[in-house]
Q: What sequence folds into this?
């Protein structure tokens, strides 16, 4: 396989599909050149294969000759030579990995300049100043990136030159000084490296290509890949491209354009440009840009041509594209395109719009597959509550959502404050990739300069973090920021609204978010796709949470942790009385009191989830969790002393103390030693269910035993549950509640039958998964508790290892992901698959779900779908993400034609499954 491909190379497949080989940028440059025939400066791509070969064994032997060949073809097509003393060609050398990693790797511009070609460029352009300004920039950039010299010496020399020239503007430094700078810069290089600055184009080119390869493993790039979960072994491609100059004169310029608004999704071109500038100036946000609509005034012909190109790109890619373009002396050049990043609101709006035949006419399946977890999260973000605040400064709303935090002015300070547990807003003039760690640690980002495509805006939008950029009224000092009469100091509170571009001094209360109409539309398509394949339930313990979850699309409750009902201020004393009871009568009294409150809780939950299944888990945690800490009581005992009540609690806490409580007396084991507890819970639940029936409701009750390990354990627990159910069913029918429309008289369930419940178990231990065949003999359903299953499969304490060692494990590559976040496919995932298979071998109708935290994680949901689960259950706010991820799992695992049918419920054949 060759390592180097010209942009117009004839590939057997469309080059846009060859991102693995050519990287995203190279693939799209080739597509624009060879398929769309757009005006793209010619060039060639050094493949990711070459980078991987370099990483494994150093510079590949064949590469020099291939680069030389591509260089000479490029020179021929341009009619100029790199380094030529009379008519030089300059090239850019840019990184371009499969996945976009904005600003995380290196770029070298103006390559090919040397002492001779700089003179040649001056002659060729008739602009000596331009030539030596370009040469100065090149030496500094090459020295920093390729020779790895510190940039400060070059910067301070340039500042001194400006001072000498009596100007603050880079553009006003006279040519004599620029020539002098080029010489002095070369002396700096020689002093540091002991060698002259490389003058031969071939040396310059090899150095720059190698530097880009190296930058794949630079700390910024690694940190970015860690955050975005991009594999570290992909490598980057390198694009060498003829330079065009937007900074030639006022008939030149450069810009970034989107085919639709990436912040709102509105149709029509969008972006920024600068007259007489280089591309980096727009992205760096150092000069304030003009909107693309203004291009019409400065360059009417180019504006028309650009809009035509935008609509061709949209039609060709069937999606919103972003572009970089340059105008050189009136001629338009396209430097890059790709499917553009967008906010959550924009992604949803575009997905709905683009499905219309009058728009791009994409399929609903395609629309659903373009939405990400982050998109949904960002429309679920909070906003400013009410309007009772004073606007302190205004800027551009670069990334929606509101954030409140204490201000810090450097990324390091912001990260350190967040580490201390503070809520932080990072305030900068503009951001650069060096600030990423501080941005990551912040609730929101505020900059004084820059446009909507500046670094701060693009990065924040990608992460769904609120950001306001270009708030020009802000004047930043080292430890304070002023706007008008108000000065805020480091650590003061600020609030930002990244949708409206508003900055408020102080803390503004926030509301919960209200997603746009397109949110419901896209999720309804997702529901159509996953219907009959994978249901989504919520983990909820109160009527309010259940109602909220239902509003977010939950199709039942997969886990009601009844212990949460025990922790209320009014309930804890009763629970403690039950634990402290000296006689069966005392224990029965406490249980009776708990029964009454639990009954009310269950009524509220069953009402909120009427007609949908509700899985109630009987008490799970070790009893010491309901008692005060032994350390605190011991301390009090040794200092001020304990009162009699406290002494009893202390003794009980000591008695229930276990060396390893997560592996001790909890779950069904607790039921074995305190059977009255489970009987009380079942009674409270069944009474609530009967009441719901009498009141006209349709409760569907599933009773779940936690932490079962053997068939015998579950058979015993099942016996208690069945006895309690039978006992309640025999009792007198309750009277309808006040105000209820009494419907199902007799209180005996649907169709006059006694109220029916199903009884199942959590599968939370490796043994339970392995012996699922036996356990299924006495279970109607399984629910995998992947939190405990992960804990016990890895032997990782779920309470300890994440804080202490997970970072080190991830950094050293000992684990690909935190297994408490994404289910471990090879171990825990395998137990889920095996447990399901073995359980269903015994009982084919066995219903199987998952209710650990992984139930809301997209990658885990894909695994659960493939393992044949009927439903996933997650926290209420994750329900929309789980609905989307479930649909995407169905699409990703379906053959292509079924995928199309799945998106259209009228055509799609589905296997029906109850959830
Ligand atoms: C689990 O272990 O995955 C589970 C859902 O139970 P809990 O988190 O309550 O232990
Ligand atoms: Mg558990």
A:
């Amino acid at each position: 396989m060759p390592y180097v491909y010209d942009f117009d190379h004839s590939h057997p497949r469309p080059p846009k599909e060859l991102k693995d080989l050519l990287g995203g940028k190279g693939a799209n440059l080739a597509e624009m050149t060879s398929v769309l025939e757009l005006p793209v400066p010619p060039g060639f791509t050094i493949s990711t294969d070459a980078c991987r070969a370099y990483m494994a064994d150093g510079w590949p032997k064949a590469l020099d000759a291939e680069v030389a060949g591509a260089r000479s073809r490029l020179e021929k097509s341009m009619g100029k030579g790199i380094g030529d003393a009379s008519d030089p060609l300059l090239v850019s050398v840019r990184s371009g990995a499969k996945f976009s990693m904005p600003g995380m790797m290196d770029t070298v511009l103006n390559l090919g300049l040397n002492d001779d070609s700089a003179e040649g460029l001056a002659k060729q352009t008739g602009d000596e100043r331009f030539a030596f300004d370009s040469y100065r920039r090149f030496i500094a950039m090459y020295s920093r990136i390729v020779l790895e010299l510190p940039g400060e010496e070059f910067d301070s020399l340039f500042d001194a030159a400006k001072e000498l020239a009596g100007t603050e503007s880079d553009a006003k430094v006279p040519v004599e000084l620029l020539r002098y700078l080029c010489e002095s810069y070369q002396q700096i290089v020689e002093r540091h490296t002991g060698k002259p600055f490389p003058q031969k184009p071939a040396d310059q080119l090899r150095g720059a290509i190698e530097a880009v390869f190296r930058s794949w493993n630079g700390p910024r790039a690694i940190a970015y890949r860690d955050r975005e979960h991009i594999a570290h072994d992909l490598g980057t491609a390198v694009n060498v491209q003829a330079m065009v100059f937007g900074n030639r004169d006022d008939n030149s310029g450069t810009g970034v354009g989107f085919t639709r608004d990436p912040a709102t999704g509105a149709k029509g071109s969008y972006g920024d440009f600068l007259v007489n500038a280089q591309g980096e100036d727009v992205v760096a946000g150092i000069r304030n840009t003009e909107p693309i609509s203004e291009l019409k005034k400065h360059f009417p012909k180019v504006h028309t041509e650009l809009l035509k190109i935008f609509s061709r790109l949209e039609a060709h890619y069937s999606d919103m594209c972003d572009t970089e373009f340059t105008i050189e002396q009136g001629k338009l050049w396209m430097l890059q395109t790709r499917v553009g990043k967008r906010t959550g609101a924009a992604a949803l709006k575009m997905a709905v719009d683009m499905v219309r035949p009058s728009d791009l006419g994409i399929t609903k399946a395609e629309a659903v597959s373009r939405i990400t977890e982050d998109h949904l999260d960002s429309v679920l973000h909070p906003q400013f509550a009410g309007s009772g605040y004073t606007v302190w400064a205004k800027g551009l709303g670069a990334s929606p959502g509101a954030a409140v935090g204490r201000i810090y002015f450097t990324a390091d300070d912001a990260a350190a404050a967040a580490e201390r547990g503070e809520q932080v807003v990072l305030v900068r003039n503009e951001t650069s990739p060096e600030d990423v760690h501080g941005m990551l640690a912040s609730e929101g980002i505020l900059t004084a300069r820059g446009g909507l495509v500046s670094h701060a805006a693009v990065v924040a939008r990608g992460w769904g973090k609120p950001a306001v950029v270009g708030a020009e009224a802000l004047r930043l000092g080292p430890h304070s920021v002023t706007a008008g009469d108000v000065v805020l100091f480091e650590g003061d509170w600020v609030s930002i609204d990244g949708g409206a571009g508003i900055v408020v001094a102080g803390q503004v209360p926030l509301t919960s978010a209200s997603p746009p109409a397109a949110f419901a539309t896209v999720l309804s398509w997702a529901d159509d796709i996953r219907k009959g394949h994978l249901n989504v339930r919520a983990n909820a313990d109160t009527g309010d949470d259940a109602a909220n979850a239902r509003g977010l699309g939950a199709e039942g409750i997969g886990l009601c942790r009844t212990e949460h009902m025990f922790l209320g201020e009014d309930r804890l004393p009763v629970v403690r009385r039950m634990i402290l009871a000296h006689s069966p009568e005392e224990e029965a009294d406490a249980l009776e009191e708990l029964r009454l409150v639990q009954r009310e809780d269950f009524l509220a939950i069953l009402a909120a989830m009427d007609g949908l299944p509700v899985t109630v888990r009987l008490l799970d945690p070790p009893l010491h969790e309901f008692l005060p800490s032994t350390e605190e009581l011991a301390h009090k005992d040794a200092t001020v002393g304990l009162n009699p009540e406290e002494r009893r609690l202390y003794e009980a806490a000591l008695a229930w103390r276990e060396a390893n409580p997560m592996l001790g007396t909890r779950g069904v084991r607790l039921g074995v030693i305190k059977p009255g507890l489970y009987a009380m819970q079942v009674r409270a639940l069944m009474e609530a269910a009967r009441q719901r029936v009498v009141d006209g409701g349709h409760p569907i009750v599933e009773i779940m035993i936690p932490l079962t390990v053997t068939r015998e354990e579950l058979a015993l627990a099942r016996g208690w549950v069945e006895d309690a159910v039978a006992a309640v069913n025999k009792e007198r029918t309750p009277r309808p509640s006040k105000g209820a429309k009494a419907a199902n008289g007799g209180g005996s369930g649907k169709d006059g039958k006694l109220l029916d419940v199903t009884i199942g178990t959590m599968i939370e231990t490796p043994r339970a998964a392995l012996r699922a065949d036996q356990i299924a003999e006495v279970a109607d359903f399984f629910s995998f508790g992947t939190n405990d299953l992960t804990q016990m499969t890895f032997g990782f304490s779920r309470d300890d290892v994440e804080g202490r060692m997970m970072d080190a494990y991830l950094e050293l590559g000992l684990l690909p992901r935190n297994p408490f976040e994404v289910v471990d496919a090879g171990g825990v995932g395998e137990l889920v698959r095996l447990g399901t298979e073995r359980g269903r071998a015994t009982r084919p109708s066995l219903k199987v779900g998952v209710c650990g935290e992984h139930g809301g994680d997209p990658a885990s949901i894909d695994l659960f779908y493939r393992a044949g689960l009927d439903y996933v259950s997650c926290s209420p706010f994750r329900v929309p993400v789980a609905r989307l991820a479930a649909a995407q799992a169905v699409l990703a695992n379906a053959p292509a034609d079924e995928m199309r049918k799945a998106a259209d419920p009228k055509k799609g054949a589905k296997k029906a499954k109850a959830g």
Summary: The radius of gyration is 33 Å. Residues 584-608 form the longest helix (25 residues).
